[in-house]
Structure formats: structure tokens, C-alpha cells
Amino acid sequence: MTAVQTEVLLQTLISGILLGGLYALIGIGMTIIMGVMKIINLAHGELMMVGMYIAYVLYAYFHIDPYLSILIAAPALFLLGMALQKYLINPVVKVDSILPENQVILTVGIGMVLANLATIIFKSDYLQTPVSYGTKAWYLSDLWKQAPIELSLSFPWSVSFVVALLITACLWFFLAKTDMGKSIRATAQDKDAALLMGVNVGRMRVITFGLGSALVGSAGCLFIPIYYIYPDIGGQFTLIAFVITILGGLGSTVGAIIGGLILGLFESLTATYIGMGWAPVGRFVIFVAVLIFIPGGVASLLKSRKFGK
Amino acid sequence: MKRLALAIAVMFACFVFSTTLLAADTLDLTIPLPLTGKQAKFGEIMKRSYEMAAEEINAKGGIKSKKLALSFEDSSGKPETARAIVEKLIDVKKQPVIVGEYTSACAKAVAAVAEERKTPYLVVASADDAITQQNYKYVFRQNQVNAHYADAFVSFLQEVVKPKTIAVLYESSAFGTSGADAMEKDAKALGIQVVLKEKFETGAIDFKPLLSKVKAAQPDVVYTVSYANEAQLIMKQIKEIRLEAKLFAGGAAGFAIPEFIDGAKDAAEYVISATLWTPQVKYPGAKEFANKYKAKHGDFPSYHGASAYSALYVTADALNRAKDWTQDGIRDALKATNLMTAFAPVKFEDKEGYQNQNFAETLAIQVLKGEFETIWPKNQASKPYVFPVPTWKERR
Fold it and tell me: Which residues of B291-306 are buried (b: 16+ CB within 10 A; e: fewer)?
């Protein structure tokens, strides 16, 4: 392999991992909602869009850095998510209907309302937060003068990646170590058993939806320094989250992290070695392949290893 | 009681009378445009420009003493929506002429409907060559075709840059694909080797894998055809990975609107783009339009605005000359157009396999100190070009 080829490969892998970390955060939010509620939240991307707009408004009017705005956007999205679950989705759960997928359809409706509200408030302009460090990067040749190859590591991408990891770590701690986290996991594993053990299942659902929204809202804040927003941006991220959720195994947090990284790396490698126009095709090839060959996703592979099946 | 009834009757009569009078005095024109969705930014520029033109036309007495009443319908850049809107305009509202739309995909859909229903359609800023290559009798295009978009830029390459290799990146849309094909053809004609020709999806986030591939190919010129946001992201990420080339260039659209400089900031400096119009062109009315637009909306308009503004003048001119306001009457009048506008001289010709196509001179612009400056052809230039451009390391 020549130096140039190595450089291209390494740069691609760096991009893929950074992108995958961000994807993972989007996917986790959807997957924990999936685990507890047993529904796919198709308003996921729109919730991310709300987070991005919060970050934008804070930047444009109060000059707050998009990364700091996570501290405001995440709680705001948490409350919004809880309200959606409590006042819109829960009432629908109680109603017997011909379609058991009623709640999924409801989330589509919620997504549309959010997107159209954003259109009314912000028009369909493309908005950005032109942060001063937008194109800052670290270069290998600055650190090591005689480097045979040149690699770069983007500053905003790296910060977003690290923050995404921190948030994920906090989430893991919350789910594994706290009482409430354990109750949420119990609800996800067996709703009826959890109910019998005295877990307030209804409340757990409300909190989980809030948590999922807060996660994707923070993902929005991490995306805005490197991307842009417009009201209809949600759809593409809902799709990515959906693919990751399937790839990782429905409801599995670890699966979503691995799924996000796989998708990020896969997209980057496709872009370099096949062609960037093929990225959407690749995404769906993964999607279909996972459904056919490993229907349980990454999570089922991890499980079968653990129990030595 | 009787008096009251009478008063009401009189008021009612007045109302009916006034509305009929009003209806007789206005000419309704509904323009399909992308006002939401990805192309909304372009739609907005065009909408503002149409409105300015309508205001001026009405202030000068309207068309055959009828006031022009504009309204807009949002197609969100979706061909099926654009098609439905135009079907409604022709079949239900009986509008005898269609003006508008932006993306090539939408304009193609509208052109097919217009031709089928024998209604003249004036294409304003859609570039795909195929639109006026299908022997349509009722479709007219005011802006230059994609094959010629880069004419000025290509002559700049030939006379100044003299590159050996070029990399062409393009968006996977009708506009992107045809623009890239045209550039490939031009490059071959000039003996420039196309080392890489790659497309990317709209809405892509990370271009670095693609760009590191470009970097490895070491082209002299990197030429990109895309709409708004990808143009900014690509330039930012080119700076990030320090992709060095003699020249970075874009094919109009996303590279020629003010948002490009706002979004890409210092990464936009020295980027050259093909364009159809700049506020600095020396056509009568161009400067006035640009200044008026800037005073009203804070930014200079892009060529999209100028084309929309002039399209309404072209339409008004045809309506003034038409012997009657039937579809064929207006078509014949449009065909005979020979008008100097702020955008360019407009004349619809059949040549090079195009029908009813206006062939206007194109320009090249360069971002210098955060402003678009016209640099080519020399007789239109507002500032001398900067070439070769400094490397990213030198710029720090």
C-alpha cells in the first residue's frame, strides 16, 4: 500500500468513526423508546430538529455556544417528550382500535406538526451557526514534521464525538446503576412482571420518552456546528435512527452504539471506495441484509456469544 | 325596516359591482415556486424579485391597462406537486401562460404538462438541457442551458489557468448530473484530463472520505456542481483536510448566492463560480434592480432573482404584443420576443438542437475579500482575478 492509499484509508476511518459516534447517539434515543414502548418513534428526527432550532436560537440571539446549549436543549426536549407521551401517546395506548400500530401513526403525525410549526416560525430558510472554530482542525504534519502522510482531525467533529461518548456513558450509568434506570430496564424486558414488582410502568414510559427525546435533542446540538438546519431535516435522521435501531437489535443500547459505528464506517468506506452517490443504497442494503440474516441485530449476536449457544 | 333592507340591498349591489369591476381590472398570474423544502432559499429570492417586477409594471400602468395580480403556490421542489399546481392553473383557473418553478426536475414536469395542454410556459432558472430539447412548441427558456452555463468559466480555464487535470464532483440531481456531463465534455474538448468524476447525495453530512480521494488524485482544478448547502459544507471540509488545488470552482447555483459566503466564511475565499448574472453586469436596469433589491432585503440578489425579475417583464412584453390573450396568441408573441432586460437580452431561438432557447452570455465570479466580484469575461470584470490562489497553509 502506498503512502497515498494509506492516507486515504486512515482519513476515511477517522471520518467514519466520528460520524458513527454521532449516529449512535441518534440511534440510542430511538432504541430506548423502542425497548420500553415497543413502538418505533417516527417523530425522532423532528425531535432532533427541535433540539437544533433551540441551539440555533440560543446562538443567534443570546450568543450561547451550540455545545453549551445542550444544557438547555436536553431538559427542554425531556419535558417536551414527557408531555407528548403523557398527553398524546398514552391516551391512544388505552383505546382499543382495529390498528395496533395506532401509536406509530400518531408519532408520524406529531413529526408533521413539529416540522410544519418550524416552517411557520422559522420559514424554510437554511440556518447555520457559523461558529469561529467551524473549520479548525488538527494536522498530523503540525505534530510530526516529517510525517510521510497528512491526516487531519476536525475540531468541531471531535468535540461532538467526545460529548456524544460522554452522554452515552452517563446514560449507561443511569440505566445500570440507578433505581429508576433499573425500573426502565425491567419495563423494557417484561412489562407485566415489572408491574407486579411494583414498578410504575406508566410513569416509566413517560420518563423513557422524555429521555429518548433529550438524547436526540442533544444530538441535534452536536450536529449543528458541523451541519445546517431547515424544518424538513427530520426525515433523514429518523431514517438513520431507524436503520441503526434495526442494525443494533430492537431496544438494545449497546447494539445501537455498535450499530451507529458500523453505519458510520460503512458510509465512509462506501463513499471512498465505491462512490458517495451509493451511500443511500448501501444504507438500505445493510438494512435488508440485517433483517434477513441477523433479524435480532447486533444485540442477538452479543447475546448468543454470552450464553454460548 | 324597509329603509334598512334598502340600505343593505344598495350596499350589496355596490359590493357586487365593485368586485366585478375589480376583476375586470386585474390580470391574475399564479407562479409555482419552491417556498418550503430544500430549494426554498432560491424560491424566496425569486418570489421577491417577481413581486418587485410586478410593482414596477403596475406603477407604469400595468399590461394593456390591467393591473398584474401575482400569487404564489408552493411546490416544495417536488415535481409531482409542481405538476398538480400547473394542471390546476391551466384546467381550473384557465391561466393562459405559466411562468416559474426552479429545480430542473420540476420544470421538466411542468413543461410536459404545458406542452400537452398547449399553454406557453416560460422557464426562468432551470438549467437541465433536456427541457428545451424535446421539440416542445410551447416551452420557452430565458436562462442559459447547463451545457453553456460554464462557458465563461471554461474560457477562463483555457486562457488563464491552463490546467492538466480536473476533478468533477456533482449532486445526484438533474441539475448536478447535466452540469457535470457538460463540464466533462468541455474538459475533453480542451484536452484536460478528468481524473475523477463522482456524485454525492443531497443532504450528505460528511464529504471527507470523498474529498480525501480527490486529494489523492491531485487534480489541478476541483469543480463542483451543487445547490446551496453542500457547496458550503464541501468548501469547509476541503479547507479542513487541506486539499490543495490550483483552483476551486463551482457551477453556479449554490456557489453563486450570498449564503455561500455567509456559510463557508473564509473557506469561500478565492472560489470561482460560473454564473448567469451578477449585480455588476452592464445591462440597462441591472444595477438599479440589484440596488433596489439590496435596499429592500439586505443582500444582493443572485442570478435567480434577476432572471425572475426579467421573466415578468418578458411576459408582460409578450402579453402587450399578443393579438389576443389566448394560449396560441401569447405563444406567438413570446416567440417574437426581442427584449433587453436587466438579466440579459432575451430572444428565443431554435439552434444547436434547442427550441425556444435564449442564449445569453455567461460570466465567472470569484469571492474576493468576502464579496462576489465579476472576473470574466474581461469586458464585464469588476475586479482583476486572483490566480494562482494561496495554499491553505499559507492562508492561516
Answer: ebbeeeeeebbbbbbb
Q: What is the CATH number of domain A3-306?
A: 1.10.3470
Q: Which residue in chain B is spatially nearest to A281 when comparing CA positions?
A: B201
In CATH, B148-275+362-395 is 3.40.190.10: no
Q: Note the residue count of chain B.
A: 396
Domain with CATH 3.40.50.2300 in chain B: 29-144+283-357, 148-275+362-395
Domain B29-144+283-357 fold: Rossmann fold (3.40.50)
For the segment B179-207, what is each residue's pLDDT rounded down to a tens digit?
Answer: 899 899 999 999 999 999 999 988 888 99
| CB contact (8 A) between residue A15 and residue B213 | no
Which residues of A fall within a CB distance of 8 Å from B396?
none
Measured between CB atoms, does A154 come within 8 Å of chain B? yes
Tell me if chain A has a CB within 8 Å of the CB of B83.
no
DSSP-assigned states of every residue in B256-304: SSHHHHHHHGGGGTT-EEEES--TT--STTHHHHHHHHHHHHSS---HH
Q: Which of B212, B242, B263 sits opposite A12 (nearest CB)?
A: B212
Residue of B nearest to A20 (CA): B206
Helix, strand and coil content of chain A, in percent to the nearest 5, comes to: 75, 5, 20
Q: What is the ipTM of this complex?
A: 0.84
> For residue B7, is pLDDT > 70?
no
Q: Do the chains contact at B263 and A230, CB–CB below 8 Å?
A: no
For an interface test with A, the pick among B171, B199, B229, B240 (most A C-beta atoms closer than 10 Å) comes out as B240
CB pair distance less than 8 Å for A134 and B236: yes
- Residue B344 DSSP class: -
Interval B124-175: pLDDT, tens: 988 888 899 999 999 999 998 888 888 888 899 888 889 999 999 999 888 8
